[in-house]
């Protein structure tokens, strides 16, 4: 369906009209994240004191900057427009893109940045990137302290997320469930969402400013957050804003949600 789209960004050419149309949609779907303004706190407690080792110790993270997060996981039509192919197993133009690894996710962000700049949809200081793990959890929680952004009752996940309990015979587009308070969809379960941070076994020594925890960690193992349609809703709180998994591998249960920020982070 999208075979006519080519890797123009890789060739350094201007995006095609079809690509510009998709890029404009992508650009319009970012949510401004404003820590410390309105009902959203500047700081939050990341991790769980009574959670598994990978989520301990709970620690305070404070944001001194604003950023933007895509309200949806990257859909397949956008991924193909940027990369030139659609590797996803479960096809659908507005289904979440899948079957790519962490390096390929970084490449998507790099090429999307170049294409958006070429189309004059972002300025030269702005970049598309993966979120830090702290940014991901802050935006997923949306100012709450409960297990989920919608409370502590896992039974309500059917309104907000896809899991083994409700995904059978469904092949949904992004955004089919309810969003959290920020207006972000599928954070509690569609596909696991990759972060920039390499995997660490726990939070000892983690940054307190929202930045990527780039030092140390497992080689070629990165954090993925949220949950997927392949997970049970109530099993080990798989759909909470507190579960993290190794996210470097390629698979049908892993995707990405893009951030847009200023190119001042040390991971860029």
Question: How would you describe this protein?
Answer:
- The protein is α+β, with helices and mostly antiparallel strands and about 270 residues long.
- It has a single domain, classed as paralog of FGE (formylglycine-generating enzyme), CATH 3.90.1580.
- Helix content is about 20%, strand content about 15%.
- It has 5 helices and 10 strands, in the order ααββββααβαβββββ.
- The chain has helices spanning about 10, 15-30, 75-85, 100-120, 135-140, and strands at about 30-35, 45, 60, 65-70, 125-130, 190-200, 220-225, 245, 255, 260.
- The strands form 3 sheets. Strands 1-4-10-5 form a 4-stranded antiparallel β-sheet.
Query: From the alpha-carbon coordinates, what is the Rg to the nearest angstrom?
Result: 17 Å
Average the pLDDT over all residues and give the rounded result: 85
Number of separate domains: 1
**Uncertain stretches:** 1-12, 235-243
Write the layout of secondary structure elements.
Blueprint: H1 8-11, H2 17-28, E1 30-33, E2 43-46, E3 59-62, E4 67-70, H3 76-83, H4 102-118, E5 126-129, H5 133-141, E6 192-198, E7 222-225, E8 244-246, E9 254-255, E10 259-262
Parallel strand pairs: 6-9
Antiparallel strand pairs: 1-4, 2-3, 4-10, 5-10, 6-7, 7-8
């Amino acid at each position: 369906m999208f075979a006519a789209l080519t890797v123009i960004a890789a060739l350094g050419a201007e995006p095609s009209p079809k690509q510009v149309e998709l890029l404009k949609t992508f650009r319009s779907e970012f949510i401004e994240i404003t820590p410390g303004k309105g009902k959203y706190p500047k700081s939050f407690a990341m991790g769980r004191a009574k959670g598994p080792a990978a989520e301990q110790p709970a620690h305070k993270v404070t944001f001194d900057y604003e950023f933007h997060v895509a309200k949806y996981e990257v859909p397949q039509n956008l991924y193909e427009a940027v990369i030139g192919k659609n590797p996803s197993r479960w096809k659908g133009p507005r289904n979440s893109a899948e079957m790519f690894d962490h390096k390929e996710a970084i490449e998507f962000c790099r090429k999307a940045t170049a294409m958006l700049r070429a189309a004059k949809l972002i300025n030269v200081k702005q970049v598309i990137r993966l979120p830090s793990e702290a940014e991901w959890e802050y935006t997923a929680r949306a100012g709450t302290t409960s297990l989920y952004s919608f409370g502590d009752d896992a039974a309500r996940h059917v309104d907000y997320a896809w899991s083994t309990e409700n995904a059978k015979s469904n092949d949904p587009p992004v955004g089919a469930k309810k969003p959290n308070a920020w207006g972000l969809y599928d954070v509690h379960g569609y596909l696991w969402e990759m972060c920039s941070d390499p995997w660490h076994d726990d939070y000892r020594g983690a940054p307190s400013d929202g930045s990527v925890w780039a030092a140390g960690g497992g080689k070629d193992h990165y954090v993925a957050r949220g949950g997927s349609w392949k997970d049970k809703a109530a099993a080990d709180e798989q759909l909470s804003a507190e579960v993290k998994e190794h996210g470097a591998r390629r698979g049908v249960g892993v995707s990405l949600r893009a951030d847009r920020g200023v190119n001042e982070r040390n991971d860029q």
